Amino acid sequence: MDDPKISQQLFAPRVRIAPSPTGWFHFGTARTALFNYLFARKNGGKFIVRIEDTDKTRSEKRFEEDILNGLKWLGLYWDEGPDKEGDYGPYRQSERLEIYTKYLKQLLDEGKAYYCFCTPEELKAQKEDMIAQGLIPKYSGKCRNLTKEQIEQNFREGKNAVIRLKMPNTKLKFTDLIRGEVEFDLDLIGDIVIAKSLKEPLYNFSVVVDDYLMNITHVIRGEDHIPNTPKQIVIQEALGFPRPIYAHLPMILGPDRSKFSKRHGATALVEYKKLGYLPEAIVNFLALLGWHPRNDKEIMPLEEIIQEFDLKRVQKSGAIFNINKLNWFNHQYLKILPKEKIYQYFEEFLKENKPNWDYLNNNPNYFKKILDLEITRINHFSDIFEFSDYLLKKEIDYPSELLIWKGENNLSIKKSLEDALNLIQSISENDLNQINLQSKFNKLIDSDPSYQNNRGKILWPLRVALSGKQASPGPFELAELLGKQETIKRITRAIKKLS
RNA sequence: GGCGCUAUCGUCUAGCCCGGUUUAGGACGCGUCCCUCUCACGGACGAAACAUGGGUUCAAAUCCCGUUAGCGCCA
After folding, report:
1. CB–CB of A93/A50 below 8 Å?
2. How far in angstroms lies nucleotide B68's C1' from the CA of residue A186?
3. Measured between alpha carbons, how far is A362 from A385 in angstroms, rounded to an integer?
4. What is the mean pLDDT of chain A?
5. Does the pLDDT of residue A270 top 70, yes or no?
C-alpha cells in the first residue's frame, strides 16, 4: 500500500496522544502533546487524548488525573478525550476491549494471524539455537501452520496460546514527515505477538485499531516509536486499514544524552508547578526544544507559536533538557505577563506551597509587594522563600561584621546607623516611601563630607540592618515595605549588635 | 548482538532540501566592562562550533560514500 499523499491530508487533521497512566505526566509526554496540539490547531484539526490503560497492573487513576490536569495547566485543551466524549469513544483502552477482540477474531478467521502454543522455554531454546547457527533470532514459525484439529486439541489440553501475526518477508518503506523515507526488512522481525489472548491485545495491535477507528490522520510521537512503526503498518495492512502519516519527534534527553528519565532528577510537570514555574514559560521552552520558527524569535506566546508552527521545521536530533534556559524563559514571562495574571498564579502557588513559618506579616498584599520587589531576582516563585525570608520571618539573624562597610569600623558604622535612624524617625509613617527616603538621604549625604564620595558608608549598613543579607534589594525599597516601626526596630537592633 | 535514528559553539539552535551572498547567525550559560551601597535588572563587548576520512565540483557546513560516536527499539 502506498503512502497517502501528504499534501492532501493537511486539511482538518485528527491527531492524538496516547499516554499510559503508569507514571507522572512528564516533559516527554508534554512535549509530544504540545506538538500534536500545535499541529491540530494550526491546521484546523482535532486534538484527541486517548488513555492507554490496558496494563491493569501498572495503570493508576491518579496518574490519569495527573496527565489530564497537566495538559490543562499547560493550556493544551483537547477536543475529545476520556472526560470529553466525542463521536469516536470510548477514549480509554480498558473500555474498548471487545473491539480489539472482534478484530483479533477477524485476523484469525482470515488466516492472517494464528495461535501459537510455544512456551517461553521453547522460545528461548529456539532463539539460542538460531544464534548458535549464526541466524537472526526471530520466531521460527513453528505454530504457523497448525491445523484446526491441532489447535483445538492444544486448547483441550489446557495449553496457553498467544496470537501471532504472519509477517511478510519483504521490505517495508514508510515516509516520515520529519525524517523522510525509512526502510525496514520485515523478514528480520518475524511473526510478532499481537495479543496474549483474545481479550488481551498488545500495544501495537490496539494502537492500530484505535487509530483507525478514531480516524487519526497523523501519528505524531516520539522517536522511540520508530521501530514500532513497521509492525503497526503490517497490522494495518492485514486489517485493511489505510495508513496514517507518521512524524517522529526527536527525544528529550538528560544531561548524559540518554532518554530523559527519573534518574535525571525531576521530570514530572507537577514538580515544576510546585516550584512555581509558569505554564506559559514551560510551553514556550518545550516548543523551542526541537522546533524553531523562521526567524530568531524565542519569546512566543502559544497563539503565536501555533501561527508559526510547521512540522517541516522540527529538528531530527535529540535535545538535552536545559534547566538554565527554562529558568530564563520563566524569568521573561514573569516580566511580560500581565500583573494580574502573575498575581493569580502566585496566589495559587502560595495556597499550596507556603512554608509553615512565624510570619512578620501574613497579609496577601504584603506577599504581592515582595513579589514585585524580587521579581527581577527570582527564577520561579519558590525562590521568594529563599531570597526574601528576611521579609517574611519575624526574626532575622546575621553576623555583626556583615554591617561593616569596606574601610570602616564598628564605631563609624554605628554612627552611620544612628544618622539613618534619626532621619527615618523624622519621617512620618505615611511619608516613608522610596522617593522621600531617596531625596532625604541624598540631602544628608551631600551635607556630610564623610558620606559624599562614600555613599556605601551609610547605605550598606542600613541595607544589611534591614535585610541581614549580603545581597538584597536597596534599603529604601526595604524600608518602605517593612514600614516605619519594623524599620526602626531592625536599625536599633543593628546598632546594639555593634555596641 | 541485530535493526533503526542522529551528528553545527558547553546547551537549545539558524544556515543544509535549491553548493558560492558565511570573517558560520541568534539565544541560554560563561567572562570583562558600564550603571551601582550589595544582588538583580538594564546596556556594551568578548571567548566559544560545521565529528572524521574520502569523493563529486572551479567552489561543500551544504550533495554522495565509508568510518567513528551517541542514542533508541528488540532480544
Report:
1. yes
2. 28
3. 14
4. 92
5. yes
Per-residue pLDDT tens for A157-191? 988 899 999 999 899 999 999 999 999 999 999 99
Residue with cell 507518521: A246
- Report ipTM (2 d.p.): 0.94
Percent of chain A with pLDDT over 90: 83
Report whether A249 contacts A290 (CB < 8 A).
yes
Span A116-145, pLDDT tens digits: 998 888 888 888 777 777 677 788 888 888
Characterise A231 by phi-psi region: left (phi > 0), alpha (psi -120 to 50), beta (else).
Answer: alpha
Sheet of strand A113-116, all strands in order from the earlier edge strand to the far edge: A113-116, A162-165, A193-197, A200-201
Contact (Cβ atoms closer than 8 angstroms) between residue A165 and residue A234: yes
Q: How far is the CA of A313 from the C1' of B15 (A)?
A: 13
Q: For A394-442, what is each residue's pLDDT tens digit?
A: 989 999 999 999 889 999 999 999 999 999 999 999 999 999 999 999 9
Q: Which of residues 464-493 of A touch strand B (CB under 7 A)?
A: 470-476
- Residues of A identified as active-site: 262
**Closest nucleotide to A329, Cα to C1':** B28
Q: Which of residues 283-322 of A touch strand B (CB under 7 A)?
A: 288-290, 292, 294, 296, 298, 313, 315-320, 322
Between CA A226 and C1' B69 the distance (Å) reads: 21
Residues 6+ positions from A275 with CB-CB distance below 8 Å: A380, A381, A382
Does the pLDDT of residue A8 top 50, yes or no? no
Which residues numbered 258-287 in chain A sit less than 7 A from strand B, measured from CB?
258-259
What pTM does this model have? 0.92
Angle among Cα A279, A335, A376 to the nearest 5 degrees reads 110
